[in-house]
Amino acid sequence: MTAELFLPEYVYHGTFLHNVSFFKQKPLDRTKWRTDSTHYLKDFGDGLYTNADLEQAQIFSKRKLRTTSDLEAKPAVIKFRVNPVKYPSDDILVFSGMSQEWSDYIYNHRMVKAEPCVHHHSIIIGPIADGNFKEIFQQFSRSRHQDVQANYNWFRTHITFNKLTNKSYTDKEIGTQIVFCNDQLNILHYESHYILEPYHRQERWKEV
Ligand SMILES: [Zn+2]
User: What is the whole-number distance in angstroms between the Cα of residue 168 and the centre of ligand 1?
Assistant: First the structure.
């Protein structure tokens, strides 16, 4: 089966302001993807995680602030223009909504230290599970099963459960990420970035 993929014209990446210059020079750079061994592994493995939705990327960059001890760090969102070229369909993996396959793929990349794929795809699209992974890891180490399938099932229930509403997330709540995992792709170009500025005793995002 072959499929054609059309990516959005722009994608957004939440980061820190001091990283903006790197992204201007080289949007995709493998050496930046796992710089800190204390970081938890990511949903779809090493790569640049982007979002077609600016607001989601803004929320993400603010959330990222909580993970750093650098008090000078400021949030920023990069806007990338996407090259409208054709990509080989065997190099693209799409999870169009939450499913067991999607959850298993994240389990394999987050819970197993070594890269689990024989060939890791260059572009991966699917729902975001980047919630309370610290907590999920702690619970998992306490309740880990002998039965492998039971672990997969346990994992799916926990990554899709929203503790605030006491219900499973809907696809709309969870959002979609577009991940670029191959730094040889000439696909993204820096367009602009967004910073937070003070506004009537609060703050708002401004494109610069
Ligand atoms: Zn992989």
Answer: 26
What tens digit of pLDDT does each residue of 5-61 get?
899 999 999 999 999 999 999 999 998 887 555 455 788 999 999 999 999 999 889
CA of 112 to the centre of ligand 1 (A): 10
Q: What's the gap in Å between 89 CA and the centre of ligand 1?
A: 16
Give pLDDT, residue 146.
81
**Domain locations in the chain?**
10-207
Distance 48 CA to ligand 1 centre (A): 14
- CA-nearest of 208, 184, 196, 198 to 27 is 184
- Between CA 74 and CA 134 the distance in angstroms is 23
Alpha helices, DSSP H, located in the chain: 20-25, 54-65, 100-110, 133-143, 148-159, 171-174
Interhelix angle 133-143/148-159, rounded to 10 degrees, is: 150
Residue 131 CA to residue 139 CA, distance in Å, equals: 14
- Which residues fall inside 5 Å of ion ligand 1, going by CB? 45, 117, 120
HSE-CB at 202 with a 13 A cutoff on CA atoms is 2
**Dihedral sign from CA coordinates of 135, 137, 141, 147:** positive
Rounded CA-CA distance 57/24 in Å is: 17
199 alpha carbon to ligand 1 midpoint, in Å?
43
CA 181–ligand 1 middle distance (angstroms): 9
